[in-house]
Input
Amino acid sequence: MTITTSTSTSSIGSAAPGANVQLIDVVKDYSGQRALDGVTLSINPGEFIALLGPSGCGKTTALRALSGLELVDGGHILIDGKDVVDVPVNKRDIGMVFQSYSLFPHLTAGENVEFGLRMRKVGAAERRRRAAETLELVGLDHHVGRYAHQLSGGQQQRVALARALVTKPRVLLLDEPLSALDAKVRVQLREEIRRIQTELSITTLFVTHDQEEALAIADRVAVMRAGNIEQVGTPEELYSKPATPFVAEFVGLTNRVTGVVSGGTVELLGQRLPLVQADAPDGEVRVYLRPEHITLSSSGIPATVVTSSFLGSHRRTNVRLEDGSVISLQHSARLVPAPGEAVHLELSGAPVTVGPS
Amino acid sequence: MSRSVATRIGAEPGKATRSVILIIVGLVFIIPILAMLQFTFRAGLSGGYTFAHWTALFDPAQASNYSILVVGIGNSLILAVVTVGIVLVVLLPTMILVHLQFPRLRRVLEIVCIVPITVPAIVLVVGLAPVYSVVVSIFGGDTWTLAFAYGITVLPYAYRAIQSNLGAIDMITLSEAGRSLGASWLRVLWHVILPNLRRGIIAASFIAVAVVLGEFTIASLLNRINIQTALLQLAQTDGYVAVIFALLSLIVVFVILLLIGRMGRNRGNRSTS
Output
């Protein structure tokens, strides 16, 4: 698929900077089951935040609460300082793209994009002009007369994005918009979304369960678990300094190794490493160690190669330690360890996250 | 052995088998209709054929003989319109509301709507007779009040037609999309839901019309005149004209069902394209 990148200065492109959004202690119950347990999150104007978490963690509920599609049982939702908890969804001035294809089947792509403007009683000529501009923004200006069933999944989601943007909403909400697409289109479209979001400076909340997607696209990522936000941070912070064992395991690959904390550092595999959590109490802990923080060396921790996989730019090798445990390490693709080969490992010395053993 | 049985069960009949089945079923339907058509051209017991029974329909001198039929047709058309109105005003909004807001009630609604198909019309009339004494005291004894009973008899068919349309479209997401784009519930209903339920609504309406035009038992037992009871009365004085109108009503219903089938086929084509 060819992506047309629009650089024209359209009316949609001159939208005002996005709004400031705050979720404060938001609580939501479903039949006694707590879906959101005091979620607090602040999104700066024009910021792109990804809500990341496993299925059922409450990320979609949080997004729907912000949109107004779900009524909350407690807390406050502020858009530009105004509490919108009691404001119905059609008055919140948000744009939303859904996980499932949500184009109106009886309308063409152009009419779909015009829909929000029609609801705002914008004149026909102005509607058509703005719809054409927004479709151009998403690279589909030649598909204005096509119906949903005449568009591919990726094209439908682009039209849905144009439809959400054409009204110049204060906040853009994306509810796993890429999950129904195949891998290649998914990567292309997520880059398109980011480009458009940056161009429009629109405050955006993007829900996904795909950590790679979240890390690649967002300014900051909020990791959710069981109705709560575990950590909010830049992709780099989340990856290199996960605040909790859950974040360490959910974001990226990690090895779990037993170690002992004492004096603000942790000892494992005969080496001493700094801690991400400086206040971790002394005692035996489980250490979460990234594969790329372990290197092959001429001396150090003895191990035996179990398997080694070529992954394009790098290679991932599983090795068995002397105590029988197996850990993964990541190294240059130029090194090709053979299964059964005796090797030595070294830890890079990067700070590690620890949790209860 | 089980494998061969499975293959036989799953196998599509061959072209020859399909043709034989089609011819047999076609003959079962067409023979009585052709017999009716032939009957309308018969010249009494003489054995000859004539157009007199058909031309008599347009003879002003004979008009008074057919007045009961005119009344019956008029009543049936009114009943069809009111019954369709009941389906659109009562059933359709209820189904949309349950589908969007009270999904747990879907099963209950389905059972309630399907039940009338299991109740024979004669049993329905026995139950409706005392109800109609109240209906008459409120709305009078006009024939159109039969539409309340017909609204119940068409429920299963109308429900199925609308439900199949509702089930084929993710109406919840479409409604939420409409709401998120600034539409009120009423505008979502008008601009999103109804246009996408158009086929189901039209099919339900046509089926309701077909059922009402063919209904005899309830009208007869509640002493109302509709096209079917009028045909019966007319048959007692002029059997030929009664058969002509029976044929015409069959054609009308056939055309209606053809239109519904065509709509279904169009929908199928569209969804697979």
About this structure: Chain B has two domains: 2-58, 60-263. The longest helix of chain B spans residues 67-100. The two ends of chain B are 39 Å apart (CA to CA). Chain B touches chain A through 22 residues (CB under 8 Å).
